[in-house]
């Protein structure tokens, strides 16, 4: 007599089987799927926050596996919850606010241009 639990795959087995059904991604496909520009991808990679890349031996082909994609997302989610990430968000918000106030105080800002322009001479002599 067989039971359901004998034939039920473990969660890790489900993920591994699902990975076999999903193709690995090129950097461009990864960027499209994550809604980011290739420049952002390469910047993240340069800063050490990119996904693990699979380089096909003997070629310059780079692929990102489904497992690597999942681990990258988990790493970003974990990092976004840290105190350092919260401090960075606060610092950037303050920087944006300061930049906005500085721009609005500039004499070139649209809100400072309340004087109408002087009428131009037509150049005709009459």
User: Which consecutive residue ranges, at least 5 long each, have pLDDT under 50?
Assistant: 1-5
Quaternary structure? single chain
CATH top level of the domain at 12-84 is Mainly Alpha
Which descriptor suits the 3D outline? elongated
Radius of gyration, in angstroms, nearest whole number: 27 Å
Largest sheet: 2 strands, antiparallel
Instruction: Give the CATH architecture of the domain at 12-84.
Output: Orthogonal Bundle
**Order of helices and strands, N to C?**
HHHHEEHH
Describe this structure in words.
The longest helix is centred in the last third of the chain and has 23 residues, at 83-105. Residues 1-5 have low confidence and may be disordered. The chain has six helices and two strands, in the order ααααββαα. The chain is 56% helix and 3% strand. The chain is elongated. It has a two-stranded antiparallel sheet with strand order 1-2. By secondary structure, the chain is mainly alpha-helical. A hairpin with a 6-residue loop joins strand 1 and strand 2 (62-63).
Summarize the structure.
By secondary structure, this protein is mainly alpha-helical. The chain has six helices and two strands; from the N terminus they run H-H-H-H-E-E-H-H.
Chart the SSEs and their pairings.
Elements: H1 4-7, H2 11-21, H3 27-34, H4 38-46, E1 54-55, E2 62-63, H5 66-80, H6 83-105
Antiparallel strand pairs: 1-2
